[in-house]
Amino acid sequence: MDVGSQVAASDEDLESWQEEEKYENFLVCSLDNTLFAFHSTYITKVEPYVHITYVPGCPEYVLGVIHIRGKIESVLDLRTILGLVKKEPDSKSRIILFKTDKLDSGFLVDSVEDIVSIPQSALQQPLSSLPDAIKLLISGEFHYQNRHIVILDVDKLSEKILEIE
What is the distance between the alpha carbons of residues 161 and 59, in angstroms, rounded to a whole number? Predict the structure, then answer.
């Protein structure tokens, strides 16, 4: 086999490998200067912060409800759920609306940073050094633009929320 044939064969192998590599899409958000990600399959919309109407008698992590395009959505305080210090919303705050088999709602986050497509081979198991309140609610992590990003598992978050109620 000549050198030209070897190069052509290796190019074909590389193209085949690249085509087989599977990617997953994530919405990256910020809470307390830490980056978190949600798998995009759960996200239905991202909305700018709007006034949240308080509903008496709700658990501490339920901030209230909002009216979005003819629909009433509950808004959950992700900071409270994760055991982080509360913060007043500002102009960068966003409400991430999500849907699981058990729950439709929204999470209030400090900001939405990006939507990224990550190769499955780059997804890692979660660090064991994370705080317990967070460790049980994550499915993995990845690095993006030299930053460590923790993947929050929306199904596990939904189960925890339903347990609390």
Answer: 10
